[in-house]
Design a protein that fits this description.
elongated, single chain, 12 helices
Length: about 280
Amino acid sequence: MKIFWKRFKRNKLAVAGGVIVVVLFVIAVLAPFISPFNPNDIDRKHILEPPGARHPLGTDDLGRDVLSRMLYGSRISLAVGFIAAGIATITGMLLGAVSGYYGGWTDRAMMRFIDIMLSIPTFFLVLAVIAFVGPSIWNIMIVIGFTSWMGVARLVRAEFLSLKEREFVLAAKALGASDMRIILRHIMVNSMAPVFVSAILGVASAILVESALSFLGIGVQPPTPSWGNMLTSGKDNIEIAWWLSLFPGIAILITVLSYNLFGEGLRDALDPRLWRD
């Protein structure tokens, strides 16, 4: 653990990404307390007002405070990211564990199914499913999660193929441990580090997909604020209200970049093959 923290702290970009991730999480949790206005309050006297003292990030085409909507939008984006990544991680872990541990026809069938899923462009698959089931926050979370588990499954499978031949697994089998106990208590525990990193990177990917769906109008529906549908509003008024596109775009950029930097830093720090000291 000391070596891990020592290596992680050396990566300044990863540390900065981790700090921003924590700050964004705190902002999302405290949004109802730090938001200066109700995000859905309409003020027709201050429509498309540029950033100023009363509205630090300006107002939109209905007079709603952009800062308040940004703060509440962070709750939606992070919730979608965490839940979708959680669904993908759990699904991938279960399928990858079964495939890697049992091998044989089970492994071959699972891998062919994963190959088929990977051959379909994920974003277009999400678009098709959302168009069929209808846009809602929960539908988006579930669809993104169940269309992005393949990478986790292949990662867990590779770990299981390597670990199931180790001495501690053979010893557990000799002592009569059940397959479920060996999978959960012996192999899965030792393969969690790369899975955790993959989950962190999956949060960034899910946030990006949700933002794209909302921007296209089939994601989170107004008046619920999300950074993606705020970008849509900004697109319609970009010539006269630049702040409507700039601030949500920067928020998406910083959030996704921070999660990626944090995840990459964790991967480097957790991989013993990269340790030189």
